[in-house]
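This section describes the prediction task in plain terms. A model, or a person checking by hand, is given the sequence of a single protein chain and must write out its three-dimensional structure as a string of tokens. No templates, partner chains or ligands are provided. The sample shown here is typical of the held-out split.
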Amino acid sequence: MNKRAILAIILFSYAMIVLDTSVVLTGLPQIHRELGFSDSGLAWVQSAYTLTFGGFLLLAARGGDIAGRRRMLVAGLALFTVASLAIGAAASPAQLVLARAVQGLGAAILAPSTLALLQTTFAEGAERTHAVSLYSATAGIAASVGLVLGGVLAECLSWRAGFLLNLPIGAAMIWAALRYIPESPRSVGQFDVAGALTSTVGMGALVYGFIRSAGAGWTDPLTQGALLAGLLLLVAFVINERGAAQPIMPLRLLANRQRASAYAARVLFLGAMIGFFFFTTQYLQAVRHYPPSLTGLAFLPMTLVNFAVALQVPRLTRRHGNARLLAAGLAVCFAGMAWLSRVEAGSAYWLAVALPMVLIGAGQGMTLTPLTAAGIAGVPARDAGAASGVVNVAHQLGNSLGLAVLVALAGAGARGLHGAALLAHRVTTALSASSAFLLLALLLMARLGCGKKSVLRQRSRSNATRLTMEPPSTGDCHARRYPHPSRTGRLSGGRRSAGRACALRA
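The expected answer:
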């Protein structure tokens, strides 16, 4: 098995998804003008994609366990590529939103396949820590390239060109997957269609209700009905998962407090980050009148720092552990977002935008890898696909629901404002709410134990020592920490690998 080739396929396939998300952000103002979207309706360009992405992730993830992960990877690549062609040819808002929804379905099949292949190809410990850090760093690189490339293409050619780039990349990845990735064993089971439908329609109703409230208000009967229907459908989803023979989201995955808190924090973190990209892009183009290419370049203080910090995550994890690194990342990101939320129409770019972006980039670089590692830590092979699906669901749920909530909140207190002043107000309000999301994520990790110190106990097994992480039996928040193996020079190679595995789980 060629692990390097498999890792390259995983990273390039994942990069397609992230790249596409970034490309569309810098093209939003052109899409707004060319196709005639309304201000609130523009959010559906992103929400249609993230809804089907997040809604079908769990079903697709379980499908990888049942039908085979290579088969699902190829199917996702094919659907994503064809939908990209349809987006490039869209002539109306309805066509674009529909094609984006289909593209989200392709991404829902593709994303959990990449993470599940990573999980089953690379052994838990130093090898997987390295692979996960590259997986997370790929998101930063693709986001950076997508913002700049999308801006350049939108200005020099068209916003459509960014989507058409997926055609050669998708074709190449399909060929490589069929050549280098062996098919995984297929397990006997059935698809939880009821779970997929109730979760997707329920989340769709919630997102629709929040976005509609931005224009129709919270007292609108349709807004209230959509929100109520969404909540009821999500309750039905949980009930279905308890009784389903093959649930798309085994509730046992949430029994582990570390994983459950990581999923919740990921929702809040990604909600804040999509708000940062969505509203800052509009601020730069509509308030500061930057062209698309310059808008993409304006994000470099964030994306370059994000990439540089992400590359140091394996070393920082071995030295400080995931819990401390995650807390530090959320705190730094919160500081940057709170600073950026003070931006005004006449603010200087370097002081009010670039410097806060540096903090946001550093915080994101420190946060994503520990969140991803915590979300799949200790999961048995039979649940690898489902666990990777839940990680990605939390990611896309944060994107779709987070953006819908921010769009609804952005118009608060804007009565009497028009033009650039109105948009500047919407940006600062949304970024202030994003700061609150990050603060809640930080408090959640501390409350649920992922930001607390853990007990490390050494246990002898044969001639090797394995370090395990345990919560304090008495519930004491200040449990003592035994010496970390990476800080001693006497441990054998086997014991040092065990220490790295422990750091990943921390």
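For orientation: The two ends are 30 Å apart (CA to CA).
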